[in-house]
Amino acid sequence: MKRQDIDWDSLPAAGDLFGEMYLAETTPKPAPDTSKPRETVFQGLVICAIAAAAAAWLSEHYNFPIILLGLLIGLSLSFVAKDPRSHMGLDFASRTCLRFGVVLLGLQVTFAQIGSLGVQPFAALAGIMTVTFLSGIVGARLVGQSHYTGILAGGATAICGASAAMALYGIIGRERVNQSQFAITLVVVSLASALAMSLYPILAEYLDLTDEQAGFLIGASIHDVAQAIGGGYAFSEAAGSYAAIVKLSRVAMLAPVVIITGLVIGGANSAEGDPLWKRLALPWFIVAFFGVVLLNSLVSIPAPARDIALSGSKGLLLIAVIATAMRSRLDLLMQTGIRPAIPVAIATLVSLIASFAAVMLIA
User: CA 205, CA 235: separation in Å to the nearest integer?
Assistant: First the structure.
């Protein structure tokens, strides 16, 4: 039987099939989309906000320092920073949120509070802060760290903990101290402050200090504002009130210390060829902080507004801390080890000893 030839032209389905195959082979393929995704602050900022909410919940339910929790959560999320889409948001959180948080912190301080401390206690407090600041620099030198690391450790211990460290870091810059070293400094400062809040009231009671002496000792030596005031009230109500005045006087010194530091070491973006006026220019958030303190001293701001500002300041600083921790490279953290922690420990011990000596001298 003779095989019958197939007339392919009479079969439209077959024609369509071969036509589609032909077009698929001959039609040029579109070039792959190599454009970068549009960067916004949304991705990184939302992650920081979620982490901050988790830290706040854990702090409220387990009574743990919120800044330390934020640091630990941020370090655990450091893998997020490998995605370039998060960089703009993380940079915004670690810089802009920090600066506005520092500005709002000024609403907690007035010049009247500083004046109520008295000349002799204020002079003693200034001496304690100076010795503590310098001990951080010396401690950094002893363990082979740069003096910039010592400035961070000494400044954070002498003034107001993580808030002061981040304000000083804005002057020093990540080119001089990498973010991993900075993260270690923040962790140790927060941990030392938490331990001091628990131990210093017990120490003051063991030494049989008066309410005023205990308030000065605690307010002059504990780093974080809330923990210094809490430690004072753990001793007595009178000690807590006096510790608040002493501690807020230290907070008021943030602007002068940052200004002097910037003049001595130069800003992170300053160069030797810059004109004098540019090298002496102050960061805008430090000028704003001083302006807010002045406003708070001249105008009676309602307590609810101050409470809202304090909550806002804490929230912004927490987000900034988390973003800084997320941008830290854990491999560099493993290389640096505990050396950046030693200047903080030395400065903390010197602060306690100097505060106790001042209490004995001005008693």
Answer: 7
The Cα–Cα gap between 171 and 265 comes to: 9
Question: Do 37 and 85 touch, CB atoms closer than 8 A?
Answer: yes
For 95, other C-beta atoms within 10 Å of its C-beta total: 17
Q: Which two tokens stand for residue 133?
A: 């600041």
Q: How many helices (H) and strands (E) does the chain have?
A: 19, 0
Query: Which pLDDT score is estimated for 58?
Result: 92
**80 with 73: CB under 8 angstroms?**
no
For residues 215 and 193, the answer to whether their CB atoms sit within 8 Å is no
Claim: this prediction has a pTM higher than 0.90? no
Assigned token pair, 267: 């800003």
Domain boundaries, the chain: 40-362
- Name the nearest CA neighbour of 217 among 128, 114, 113: 128
pLDDT, mean over the chain:
83
Is the separation of the CB atoms in 284 and 94 below 8 Å?
A: no
Two structure tokens written together for 331: 């491999």
314-353 pLDDT, tens digit per residue, is: 899 889 889 888 887 776 666 666 777 889 999 999 999 9
**C-alpha to C-alpha distance for 203 and 214, rounded to whole angstroms:** 9
The amino acid at residue 64 is F
What is the reported pLDDT for 230? Answer: 86
Q: Are 228 and 195 in contact (CB under 8 A)?
A: no
C-alpha dist (Å) from residue 55 to 64, 71, 146, 348: 9, 9, 32, 25
SS3 66: helix
Token pair listed for 238 = 């009178």
